[in-house]
């Protein structure tokens, strides 16, 4: 025989399998925020059917890396960055981004 907590859990699982509530229409982000702060999303969304998404236009997080470059190459990058009036690390990111985009197009 199931204990009381297991019974509740099983009932909730069965309930969630059959009934998914309709998400209401929100007039503002504040209204939506207040709603989700007081409601359980599992009653409205079947998370088992969720798919992983990438939002590439959002500000990306950064990761620190260590990169060894020949001194002359680093000096050239610094000179180019100074001409554009940007920090040299930003210049390196811009150059890498440009080359990555170029390579993606070449290998499609």
Structural overview:
The chain is mostly helical and 108 residues long. The protein folds into two domains: 4-48, no CATH class; 71-106. Helix content is 54%, strand content 0%. The protein contains four helices and no strands. It has helices at 4-18, 29-38, 71-84, 88-106. Helix 3 crosses helix 4. The longest helix has 19 residues, at 88-106. It is elongated, with a radius of gyration of 26 Å. 0% of the residues are buried. The model has no long low-confidence stretch (mean pLDDT 85).
List the helices and strands and how they pair.
Layout: H1 4-18, H2 29-38, H3 71-84, H4 88-106
Helix pairs in contact: 3-4
Question: How would you concisely characterize the structure shown here?
Answer:
With 108 residues, the protein is mainly α. It is built from 4 helices and no strands.
Q: What percent of the residues sit in helical stretches (DSSP H or I)?
A: 40-55%
Between the first and last Cα atoms, what is the distance in angstroms?
Answer: 59 Å
- Quickly count the helices: 4
Average predicted local confidence, pLDDT = 85
The main β sheet shows up as: none
Run of helices and strands: HHHH
**How many separate domains?**
2
Query: Per the principal axes of the C-alpha atoms, what is the gross shape?
Result: elongated
Uncertain runs with pLDDT below 50, 5 residues or more?
none
Number of E-state strands: 0
Structural class comes to mainly alpha
Strand content: under 5%
How large is the radius of gyration?
A: 26 Å
């Amino acid at each position: 025989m199931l204990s009381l907590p297991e019974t509740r859990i099983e009932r909730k699982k069965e309930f969630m399998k059959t009934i998914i509530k309709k998400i209401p229409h929100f007039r503002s982000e504040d209204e939506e925020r207040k709603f989700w702060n007081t409601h359980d999303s599992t009653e409205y969304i079947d998370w088992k059917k969720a798919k992983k998404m990438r939002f590439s236009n959002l500000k990306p997080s950064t990761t620190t890396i260590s990169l060894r470059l020949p001194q002359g190459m680093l000096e050239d990058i610094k000179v180019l960055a100074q001409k554009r009036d940007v920090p040299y690390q930003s210049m390196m990111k811009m150059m890498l981004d440009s080359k990555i985009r170029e390579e993606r197009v070449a290998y499609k």
